[in-house]
Write a structure and sequence with these properties.
Elements lengths: L10 E6 L6 H4 L5 H4 L3 H4 L14 E4 L4 E4 H7 L11 H8 L7 H6 L9 H8 L16 E4 L6 H11 L13 E5 L4 H7 L3 H10 L3 E3 L7 H4 L13 E5 L16 H15 L9 E6 L10 H4 L13 E8 L25 E7 L6 E5 L2 E5 L16 E3 L2 H17 L4 H20 L1
Parallel strand pairs: 3-9, 4-5, 4-7, 5-6, 7-8
Antiparallel strand pairs: 1-2, 3-13, 8-10, 9-10, 11-12
Helix pairs in contact: 4-5, 5-14, 7-15
Length: 432
C-alpha cells in the first residue's frame, strides 16, 4: 500500500509558521533561573518583524494526544540533574521528522534515548524510577502479553510493586503476570540476557508464563490467572504484530493480518479488565506504515453490544517515554535487534463514563488508582501527571532547541547530554 500525502507520518500536512525570535536572545546562553520557569516563560512567542526566522514546519496530529509532565520537564531542561534541555524527549513529544522538518532536524539532530538525562541517572543508580505519567501505580494488578525478552514486564514490576523508597517490602504490593507467545527455549535462543531478566522478575514474585496467545486468553492463560479469581487494572501489549522473517514485521503486506490481531486481542481481553479503572494499553509507532493501521478505530471494530456491554472506548494516546520504563528495550518479533520508537504512543482504552478512581487500603491509608487519561475537567487538577500536547507546547519546544543550536552550532546540547555519563558515573563512585 502506498502512502498518500495525507498519510505521511502522523503530522498535519498544513504547515505552521514558525514564530520569529530576537537574535540577541538566541545567542545568549539560557541561565538556570530562566529554565526553572514555565515553558511559556522559557521560550516566549515573539511577534518580531526580524528577518531571522526559521521556515514553516508541520504540526503532528494532536487529536487526543497527551504527554507525561516528566517528559515535558525533561524536554525543557527541568528534570533533576539536567545540564540542558533533553533533545530525545523533545523528539518524543513533537515527533520532528527529517523529511517534513528539514531545518530543525539539521540544526538539532535526534540522539539515542539512552542520552536522556533521566535514563542516564537510572543507569548510574543516582535516582530511582518514576511513576508519574506511566499509567501504573503501586498496588495495581497488571497482565502483560506478547512480551519478548520480558524487560517491559520487569519495568512494570518495579512500578507497581516497589514502594516509593525503592524497597519491595510494602504490604501494598501489586501483581504482575508476564506472558509470552513463545516457549522459554525459543526465547533463550533469541535473547541472550533472558535468564538474568527472569531472575530479576522472580525476585519480585512475578509469575512468568509461556505459550500464551493474546487472542485466545481463555484457552491459553492458566485458570488461576483468570476471572473471577483475578481481574487486571492494566492489560498491556507493546507493538503488537505478527512475526515476519528478516525483521520486517509490521509492514504493509501484513497490515490486514495485524488489524485482525488487534481486534481479536481487545475482544478477548475485555472480561479480564477491572470494572472501574481497568484499561488496555497498546504502544505503537506512528510513522508510516503504522499510522495507516488506525489502531484507535480498528481495536473496537466489529464489536457487538453483547461483546462490549460495559462500553469500552478509546481514551487517547500518551507519548511513549522509554526513559520511564527502565530497563525496557523494544525489540522486533523473535529478533534481538531493537528499533527506534521516539514516534511511538501508548493507545489507551477504558470504560465509558468511567475512569473513576478505585482505591485500596494499607495500614489505614487509602491508595487511589487513577485512570491514565482522566476526564477533561480533572486534567485541571494538579494530581494528574499527563497534559494535553498543544501547538503552543510544540512551538515553544522547537524554539527552545533551535535557539540552543544557534548558541553553538557545534552541538553543545548533545555534548552536554553526553557529559552527564561521566558526571553521573563520578557521583556514583564518590557515593560508594
Amino acid at each position: 500500500m502506498s502512502c498518500r500525502e495525507s498519510d505521511i507520518d502522523d503530522h498535519h500536512v498544513k504547515a505552521k509558521p514558525m514564530s520569529s525570535f530576537n537574535t540577541k536572545t538566541a545567542n545568549a546562553t539560557p541561565n538556570k533561573k530562566r529554565r526553572r520557569q514555565t515553558i511559556a516563560a522559557i521560550v516566549p512567542l515573539q511577534s518580531s518583524s526580524s528577518s531571522n526566522t526559521f521556515p514553516s514546519y508541520p504540526i503532528r496530529n494532536l487529536t487526543k494526544l497527551y504527554c507525561s509532565t516528566q517528559t515535558l520537564r525533561c524536554a525543557t531542561g527541568h528534570s533533576n540533574g539536567a545540564l540542558s534541555p533533553c533533545i530525545s524527549c523533545a523528539y518524543k513529544i513533537c515527533n520532528f521528522d527529517i523529511a517534513l522538518d528539514v531545518e530543525f532536524t539539521r540544526r538539532v539532530p535526534n540522539v539515542r534515548p539512552e542520552m536522556c538525562p533521566r535514563s542516564l541517572s537510572l543507569r548510574s543508580g543516582t535516582v530511582g524510577f518514576e511513576r508519574d505519567g506511566t499509567g501504573y501505580q503501586r498496588g495495581m494488578a497488571v497482565l502483560t502479553v506478547g512480551d519478548g525478552d520480558f524487560t517491559f514486564s520487569l519495568a512494570v514490576a518495579r512500578l507497581v510493586m516497589e514502594s516509593d523508597d525503592g524497597s519491595s517490602g510494602s504490604k501494598l504490593r501489586g501483581t504482575v503476570v508476564a506472558s509470552s507467545y513463545e516457549d522459554v527455549h525459543t526465547l533463550q535462543t533469541v535473547y541472550p540476557n533472558l535468564d538474568s531478566t527472569l531472575e530479576a522478575l522472580h525476585s519480585y514474585n512475578v509469575k512468568v508464563l509461556y505459550n500464551v496467545d493474546a487472542t485466545r486468553l481463555n484457552a491459553t492463560l492458566p485458570k488461576t490467572f483468570q476471572p473471577p479469581l483475578v481481574k487486571y487494572h492494566r492489560i498491556c501489549w507493546n507493538f503488537p504484530c505478527t512475526a515476519i522473517s528478516n525483521g520486517q514485521d509490521g509492514q504493509n503486506s501484513a497490515m490486514e493480518e495485524n488489524k485482525g490481531l488487534i481486534r481479536t486481542f481487545v475482544k478477548n481481553a475485555l472480561p479480564y479488565l477491572e470494572e472501574d479503572v481497568g484499561e488496555i494499553h497498546m504502544a505503537h509507532k506512528t510513522k508510516p506504515p503504522y499510522n495507516q493501521w488506525n489502531l484507535e478505530g480498528v481495536a473496537l471494530e466489529g464489536m457487538r453490544s453483547d461483546d462490549n456491554p460495559r462500553g469500552l472506548e478509546y481514551k487517547g494516546r500518551v507519548v511513549f517515554d522509554k526513559s520511564s520504563f527502565f530497563p525496557y528495550t523494544p525489540r522486533k518479533a523473535l529478533d534481538r535487534k531493537s528499533f527506534p520508537c521516539h514516534d511511538a504512543c501508548v493507545y489507551v482504552f477504558g470504560w465509558k463514563k468511567k475512569g473513576m478512581d478505585n482505591s485500596l487500603r494499607e495500614n489505614g491509608k487509602e491508595h487511589v488508582f487513577h485512570a491514565t487519561i482522566p476526564q477533561p475537567k480533572a486534567l485541571e487538577q494538579s494530581q494528574y501527571s499527563v497534559v494535553p500536547v498543544t501547538e503552543s507546547i510544540i512551538d515553544e519546544l522547537r524554539n527552545l532547541h533551535l535557539q540552543g543550536s544557534v548558541v553553538n552550532r557545534t552541538g553543545r546540547f548533545v555534548k552536554e547530554q553526553r557529559s552527564e555519563i561521566t558526571h553521573n558515573s563520578h557521583k556514583k563512585r564518590m557515593k560508594i
